[in-house]
Amino acid sequence: MAVDEAIQDIVDIKPLLAAPSPSSFWMVWMILGVGLCVLGIIIIWWWRRKRRSETISPRAVLKGYIQHMDDTGLSDGQWYTAMTNVVRQTAVIAWGVQASGLTAAELASLVELQTPDSALGRDVAAVLVRSEAMRFAPEGKTSAIGADQRAMDRETIHRFATRTALQDRVRHGGKHD
Fold first, then answer.
1. Rounded to the nearest 5 degrees, what angle is found at the Cα of 62, between the Cα atoms of 61 and 65?
2. Has residue 112 got a pLDDT over 80?
3. Of 15, 74, 82, 173, which residue is least crowded by CB atoms under 10 Å?
4. 87, 94, 166: which is closest to 131 by C-alpha?
5. Rounded Cα gap, residues 105 and 172, in angstroms
6. DSSP strand E in 18-89: where?
7. What are the sequence ranges of the domains in the chain?
């Protein structure tokens, strides 16, 4: 009898309970991470596209820079240094040349070769040669350039920047300002 009672108390084994697997927890985080990366890439792409569409034309930037230089009252040496920088920036924008590493003579040769209007190219090269002399002249000797020459040089550089930036705009986008 003792054995029969013991057998009657034995019950069937219960089925296993479903436990959450640790891989499903990590899977959720992985999907969330990939989704955030994709969202970040889309936001960066959209921001760069929007920023590119809002850029000011090179022509407007250069005109504003030339106007700013006339308003600041720079000395002749500083003014001609700034004019050289305008030519350098125009070369970078229009021709994709890293002009910051070029000497004034190399920059003058580049301008003469790349500018479609050969007379304008020669005039800009002359301004660059004059600029080189003014940048390294002692402070007292820089006043040798008169206001008329400075105005003519300003007009030459302005024409160069305007025509080159406009030509670059037509070549790459087909649109004018």
1. 90
2. yes
3. 15
4. 87
5. 28
6. none
7. 22-55, 58-173
pLDDT at 5: 61
Q: Quickly state the pLDDT bin for 170 (edges 50, 70, 90).
A: very low
Q: Is residue 42 very low, low, confident or very high in pLDDT (cuts 50, 70, 90)?
A: very high
pLDDT (0 to 100) of residue 59: 63
User: Buried (b) or exposed (e) across 107-141, using 16+ Cβ within 10 A?
Assistant: bbebbbeebeeeebbebbbebbebbbbbbebeeee
Burial class (CB in 10 A: 0-12, 13-18, 19+), 3: exposed
CA nearest 166: which of 98, 94, 99?
94
User: CA-to-CA distance for 100 and 88, rounded, in angstroms?
Assistant: 6
Among residues 168, 4, 152, 29, which one has the least CA distance to residue 93?
A: 168
- Answer yes or no: are the C-beta atoms of 147 and 70 closer than 8 Å: no
Longest CA span, the chain: 131
- For the four alpha carbons of 116, 119, 120 and 122, in that order, the dihedral sign comes to positive
| Angle subtended at Cα 84 by Cα 82 and Cα 87, rounded to the nearest 5 degrees | 115
Region 98-126 average pLDDT: 84
Q: Which two tokens stand for residue 101?
A: 């590493």
Neighbours of 159 (CB within 10 A): 14
Is pTM beyond 0.70? Reply is no
